[in-house]
Design goal:
7-stranded mixed sheet; Glutaredoxin; 7 strands; alpha/beta; globular
Length: 149
């Protein structure tokens, strides 16, 4: 009987620790600011996608998206339809969260990443993916391929 009670106490202790860990993680969500054109719905979908993956997203409408993207090192031909600022990095366009997470984990010496345009099937966009997405690293110098997904 004592061993069963000991086992129950141990399990409750483990579960209590797990609940504490989960609540601590959720209270420290990575913050993201997402700049978008005021009438763009897919940008709102992308913000929801990030939220669904644990990011705390603030959406800020702007009519200066292209200029802001250039200021953050994203060349015109590689700009996405919105601009995210996440933990010191630029994330332009519908970049999959797996790539954002990789960026934040690896912390390379770049300004950020971009998925140009509005590719079908990408996070926040409708439709079916019809080709691999090329995500580029941007910063000083020429953009370089960061990932293909």
């Amino acid at each position: 009987m004592k061993s069963i009670i000991g086992l129950i106490v141990a399990l409750l202790s483990i579960l209590g620790g797990a609940v504490f860990t989960l609540s601590a993680q959720s209270s420290h969500a990575t913050e993201a600011i997402l700049y978008k054109n005021p009438n763009c719905g897919c940008c709102e979908n992308y913000a929801d996608y990030l939220r669904d993956h644990g990011y705390k997203v603030t959406v800020k409408p702007t009519h200066e998206l292209s200029a802001m993207s250039r200021e953050h090192g994203v060349p015109d031909e590689l700009q996405g339809c919105h601009l995210g600022l996440i933990d010191g990095y630029v994330v332009s366009g519908h970049v999959p969260v797996s790539i954002v997470d990789r960026l934040l984990k690896e912390r390379p010496a770049i300004k950020g990443v971009t998925l140009a345009g509005m590719p079908l099937g990408s996070p926040g966009m409708g439709g079916k993916k019809n080709e691999p997405w090329k995500i580029y690293a941007v910063g000083e110098g020429e953009p370089k391929l960061y990932a293909t997904e």
